[in-house]
């Protein structure tokens, strides 16, 4: 049997990060890598723990949506963080992870775009399609962070999707026309994320948010699905990680949550 491209020797040999990504565990199957890391976090696992899985039986994305997790094709992983910060100060972490994802795919020769707050897209002949998503889950007490689980799913080598994802999703393999090493993608992400995360701890989120802007889908008309809906143009992200929308009357509003839909120009 061939060794998995997620095997620890393959991933660890490519890790340049000093602390994140160690220890590294690759599971043949789990319900969700976020659940696995959260369970170990509750048992005092140290920051840096990285868990990947060949498949997830109950993988999930934002707003409780299921995450398509076929075995042996794609990348599903979660990272344990213990930032010594107030809970409010870590709200930009999803965007900072997005910035690292953007860097990762750019280093691998792709042209990624980030859709607020947690989607990474690639251009295809049919338009922009989702290739990766981020799910951060935090445990806090008295306003202080106990831990953050940073979960990422990347469609690496998948070539088929369920009916509900057809027309919306793609994979690195479909875009490039050849398979990629999942271990190489994983190590490249950890190597990109660690300096962005360390800068958050020492200097705040601004440098990471600037990097997000390099890949961000901004300047596009959008609708925030609220009652009543907010219509305008997505113009920026603020220091908290909120999306700044400029409305038709020229005023701006910071959107901290909710579903934001827009069509990117080609």
Notes on the structure:
The chain contains six helices and twelve strands. With 266 residues, it is an alpha+beta fold. The chain has two domains: 8-215, BirA Bifunctional Protein, domain 2 (2-Layer Sandwich); 220-262, SH3 type barrels, CATH 2.30.30. It is globular, with a radius of gyration of 18 Å. The N and C termini lie far apart (44 Å).
Key terms:
266 residues, alpha+beta, SH3 type barrels, BirA Bifunctional Protein, domain 2, 6 helices, 2 domains, 5-stranded antiparallel β-sheet, single chain, 7-stranded mixed β-sheet, 12 strands, 29% strand, 26% helix
What's the helix and strand layout?
Elements: H1 8-14, E1 24-27, H2 33-42, E2 50-53, E3 75-81, H3 93-107, E4 113-115, E5 119-124, E6 127-141, E7 144-154, H4 172-176, H5 182-203, H6 206-215, E8 220-225, E9 230-237, E10 243-247, E11 252-255, E12 259-262
Parallel strand pairs: 1-2
Antiparallel strand pairs: 2-3, 3-7, 4-5, 5-6, 6-7, 8-9, 8-12, 9-10, 10-11
Helix pairs in contact: 1-5, 3-5, 3-6
């Amino acid at each position: 049997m061939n060794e998995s491209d997620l095997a620890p020797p393959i991933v660890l040999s490519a890790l340049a990060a000093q602390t994140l990504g160690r220890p590294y565990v690759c599971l043949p199957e789990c319900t969700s890598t976020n659940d696995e890391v959260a369970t170990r976090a509750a048992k005092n696992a140290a920051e840096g723990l990285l868990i990947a899985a060949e498949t997830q039986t109950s993988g999930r994305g934002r707003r409780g949506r299921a995450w398509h997790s076929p075995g042996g094709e794609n990348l599903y992983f979660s990272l344990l963080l213990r930032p010594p910060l107030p809970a409010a100060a870590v709200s930009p972490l999803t965007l900072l992870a997005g910035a690292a994802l953007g860097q990762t795919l750019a280093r691998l020769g792709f042209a990624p775009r980030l859709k607020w707050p947690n989607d990474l897209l690639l251009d295809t002949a049919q338009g922009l399609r989702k290739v990766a998503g981020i799910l951060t889950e935090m445990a806090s007490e008295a306003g202080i962070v106990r831990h953050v689980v940073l979960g990422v799913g990347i469609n690496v080598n998948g070539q088929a999707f369920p009916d509900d994802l057809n027309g919306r999703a793609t994979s690195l393999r479909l875009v490039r026309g050849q398979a990629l090493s999942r271990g190489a993608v994983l190590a490249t992400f950890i190597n990109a994320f660690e300096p962005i995360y360390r800068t958050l701890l020492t200097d705040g989120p601004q440098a990471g948010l600037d990097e997000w802007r390099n890949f961000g889908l901004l300047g596009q008309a959008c609708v925030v699905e609220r009652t009543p809906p907010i219509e305008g143009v997505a113009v920026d992200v603020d220091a908290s990680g909120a999306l700044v929308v400029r409305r038709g009357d020229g005023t701006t509003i910071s959107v901290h949550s909710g579903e934001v839909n827009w069509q990117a120009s080609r």
